[in-house]
Each structure stands twice: as structure tokens, then as C-alpha cells.
Amino acid sequence: MFPVMIGTIVIAGVVGYLSERTGFTRNGVLQSIIICIGGAFLAYFVRLMFGIGFGSPGLNAIASSIGALIIVPTHWRRR
After folding, report:
1. Distance of alpha carbon 67 from alpha carbon 34, whole angstroms
2. Fewer CB within 10 Å, N or C, the chain?
3. CB atoms within 10 A of CB 76
4. Which residues contact 15 (CB under 8 A, 6 or more apart)?
5. What angle do CA 14, 57, 34 make, to 5 degrees?
6. Helix 29-50 and helix 2-22: axis angle, to 10°?
7. Which helix (H) or strand (E) holds 57?
8. Exposed e or buried b for every residue in 58-73, given b needs 16+ CB within 10 A?
């Protein structure tokens, strides 16, 4: 269980970094990583408690990280 959680954090961090570097988001690198890790933690604990998710933990981490980046509204920020 612990290695799955560490892997989830690493995958979410990589997704957050790559999304910022490719231009998918414009939140800032650290902010995108934090958003992705939060979404991945949420999906990880939902999977533990209810068994809802995709087949593999890695796919859960990727899907939840991208979903968190899409859901978190940052377009109203001042530039």
C-alpha cells in the first residue's frame, strides 16, 4: 500500500510538471504539481475506501491529475 502511494505522488508530480511545461496550464510549476498531487491523493483514497477507479493505480494517478488540473478554476486570476 505504501509503495502505491509513493508512486501515485511521483506520477502526479510528473504530470503536473509536464502539463506546465507543455503549455496545457498556466498556473506555475509548483501550483500545478500541488493541484495534481491533491487530485491524485483524492483518487487514491476513494479507491481505498470504495474501490472506484480504473484498473491500475498508475492510470488512476494520471487520470485524476489531469482531471484536477481541468476542474480547478484558475482563469479568474490576475495576470
Report:
1. 13
2. C
3. 5
4. 36, 61, 62, 65, 66, 69
5. 35
6. 140
7. helix 57-71
8. eebbbbbbbebbeebe
The confidence score (pLDDT) of residue 54 equals 87
Instruction: Output the pLDDT for position 35.
Output: 93
| Chain position carrying cell 500500500 | 1
* Burial of residue 17, with CB atoms counted within 10 A of its CB: 0-12 exposed, 13-18 middle, 19 or more buried: middle
Q: For residue 40, give the 3-state DSSP assignment.
A: helix
* Residue 77 predicted with pLDDT over 90: no
Under 8 Å between Cβ of 66 and 37: no
> Is 70 exceeded by the pLDDT of residue 75?
no
